Amino acid sequence: ELQGRTVVAENLPDDHSYQNLEKIFGVVGNVKAIRICHPPESNSSRPKGDFLMSNKIHALIEYDNTVIADKAVEKLNDERNWRKGLRVRLLLRCSPKSVLKNRRNFDGILIDDEMPSYESGED
C-alpha cells in the first residue's frame, strides 16, 4: 500500500528543497514524507540496467492515501512541457515488468505459478 500512495517526481524545480517540494505537493493533500534522491556517482559499480528509478535527481513523495497520490499525478504532472516540466507518476507503476516477472518469494524460490516448465523424455 505504501507504493500506491507514493509518487515519483522528476524534472524538479531548481529550488528542490524539502520546504519547496512540500509547498508544491501539499496543494493536493497532506504530505507524510518527502525523500530527495540524488543520482549515484557516474563511476559507481552499479550495472546500467540496475536503475529502477531515474538516473537524475528525483523525489519520492508519500501521501496519506492512494486517492491523494492519484490526484497528485493528475494535477501536478506537466505533460505540456515534456522537456522541463515537472513529471509525476505513481511509484507503483515504475517497476519494469522484467523485474516483476522474476520476483521470488521470501525463501528465494520462484513463485509456484511462475515456475518454468521443463519437458524431458526421461523418467
What is the fold's blueprint, element by element?
Blueprint: E1 6-10, H1 18-25, E2 31-37, E3 58-63, H2 66-76, E4 87-90, H3 97-101
Antiparallel strand pairs: 1-3, 1-4, 2-3
Outline the structure in words.
This protein has 123 residues and is of the alpha+beta class. It has a domain at 3-41 and 51-95: Alpha-Beta Plaits (2-Layer Sandwich), CATH 3.30.70.330. The protein is 20% helix and 18% strand. It is built from three helices and four strands; from the N terminus they run βαββαβα. A four-stranded antiparallel beta sheet has the order 2-3-1-4, covered by helices on one side. The termini are far apart. The relative contact order is 0.22.
Order of strands, widest sheet:
2-3-1-4
What pattern of helices and strands is seen along the backbone?
EHEEHEH
**CATH topology annotation of the domain at 3-41 and 51-95:** Alpha-Beta Plaits
Protein structure class: alpha+beta
- How large a portion of the residues is in β-strands, by DSSP E? 15-25%
Low-confidence stretches: 94-120
Determine Rg (CA atoms, Å).
19 Å
CATH class of the domain at 3-41 and 51-95: Alpha Beta
Annotation, overall tally of beta strands = 4
Helix content: 10-25%
CATH structural architecture of the domain at 3-41 and 51-95: 2-Layer Sandwich
Figure out the total of helices: 3
